[in-house]
Structures are given as C-alpha cells and as structure tokens.
Structure prediction request, 182 residues.
Amino acid sequence: PPALQSIFAALPASLPFSLLVSQHMPPGFTRTFAERLNRTSGFEVAEAVEGEAVSPGKALIAPGGKNMLFRHEEGIVRVRLVDPEPMENCVPSVDKMFRSCAQVFGPRLLGVVLTGMGNDGSEGVRAIKEAGGYVLSEAEESAVIFGMPRAAIATGTVDAIVPLERVAGEILARCGYEGQRN
Prediction:
C-alpha cells in the first residue's frame, strides 16, 4: 500500500485517465484502503462497485474477495465484480484484471506491476502486450518484495523498469500528460 500511496500522491488532481487497482487484500480492508488513498490524492479514489462506470479522473480499487473485470455496455466501460474460483490464491487477481482490461482497452492500456509476493500479473502482462498495450514494472531496488515485478519482467513483455519514485512520471509521460503535476 505505501507504494500506491506515493504514486497517487504524485499524480495530478485533473487525472486524464482512469486508475484500476487490484491489491491483494481480504474483504473489509480495501474500502478503508480506498478511503485513505482518497484523502491523500488529488483525485477521487473509491472501492469499485458492480456496474460502476470507469471514467477519467477516478481510481477504482478492487474489493477484497472479488476479482474486478470490465465490460462494454452501450459504449461505456463498466465494472464487473466476480467471485474467485474455489482454489484461487491471489484475490483480487491482477492477472484476471489485466486480461479483462486488455480485452476492453486494447492498445490504450498501460499496466503497472508493483511490489508483491508471487507471480500474479505475469500472465496478464502478456495479454496487455498482445493487445498492443504498454507494461511498466517497479525496479528491484525500490520493491519491498520483488516477486511480482520479477515474474512480470521474466515474461520479456515489460517495456520499462523504473524505481518507485519514477513510476508516476513514467505513467504521465506514456499518457502524454503535460499539465501541472503534484
């Protein structure tokens, strides 16, 4: 969570894109986490709700115990929350979110893999690249736990590896943002 807090704090209040986050947390913790991020960010942060529209200027956090997927509905991208499979270990799943995002957003997608245990996200980054998107990973020197970034990098599909303090700037640069930064 501190990694996300530092990135969110460095992003502008007039966020020209959506932020969609899957953080491995149990039910009950993600709402408080989203509220804390909302207080320290210049843009709106909330725990995702079934059917909610994805819109620029807002960050949605996947609820603990659910996987956050997306669907097109009458020209609007909406959240779809689904229960995990019985033996699924990583929930909310980064892989499932990335695959869903790749299908919905295609080449407009920028996926970021930050500190974390295991290899969740490594299959999803492949889907992002296959859809023409861009993949960014946190560098080993700043990752508290390098498992997830290491697994993503090992796929050969990561476009840039940067330390945590440069992640927000890299996101803005890739999105062509030229406004005032926080």
